[in-house]
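does this look right to u?? deoxycytidine diphosphate version
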Amino acid sequence: MSRSVTVPVLTIDGPSGSGKGTISRLVAEQLGWRLLDSGALYRAVGYAAGAAGLDLSDVEAVTRCAQSTRIRFQPSADGHDTRVLVNGHDATDELRTETAGAAASAIASIPSVRQALVDMQLGFRKAPGLVADGRDMGTVIFPDAAHKVFLTASAAERAKRRYKQLKEKGLSVTLSGLQREIEARDARDASRAVAPLKPAADAVLVDTTGMPIADVVAKVFAVVRP
Ligand SMILES: Nc1ncnc2c1ncn2[C@@H]1O[C@H](COP(=O)(O)OP(=O)(O)O)[C@@H](O)[C@H]1O
Ligand SMILES: Nc1ccn([C@H]2C[C@H](O)[C@@H](COP(=O)(O)OP(=O)(O)O)O2)c(=O)n1
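got this back:
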């Protein structure tokens, strides 16, 4: 058995806007564990492919892009958030847009792109533990994780959360447009042949509709420290 397998992992999967990023960050802080934002990797590849002018359906070109894109997570100067550097460029703000989410979802349906990102994701598993946020953390990347959670919320609530979040960032979005985009992205993520969005058989399902963030954190924390 390799050493990394003994490092505990909490996987947090779920659809867009279910709270994965928020809850993962808070629970990782409480546990003192590392954090893997796997969605940022797919967003970074989608962004790099777009910046290089690639056709996102060109499987070979996008796969080469996934294999060669340098992605680095770095604490911001004030230490309050994490910046994502893509080939040396701070692309954090561009990566959070719904356009970047849609590009990520498109390239994430290519099996060889997913394969290209496996080792990088496994490399985050280091002591004292890892909280891994994504779509296939509990099913494909860390199937042996001791703790698995699948977060959900109604599509209407997830769209409202995303609307508020993007508005606060000064982006021009509409609630109805966002709900359509989120539902289209979830449908694509859930229906793809490889590593579709679905709960692991041994995941604890948490419906966060109407549930305050602190309550979700407490519920997820209790999965690891009952
Ligand atoms: N339980 C909750 N109640 C209200 N707002 C939430 C809740 N969980 C997350 N949010 C907010 O919703 C937005 C999207 O959450 P995020 O963690 O980015 O979701 P995901 O990573 O699943 O896409 C953020 O602005 C976050 O603060
Ligand atoms: N483990 C993962 C993480 C993300 N993806 C794909 C599918 C998602 O629609 C996009 C963006 O993921 P991300 O978690 O950043 O998106 P949300 O914050 O949930 O809206 O990437 C994936 O296929 N597998």
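The chain has a mean pLDDT of 95. idk if thats expected tbh
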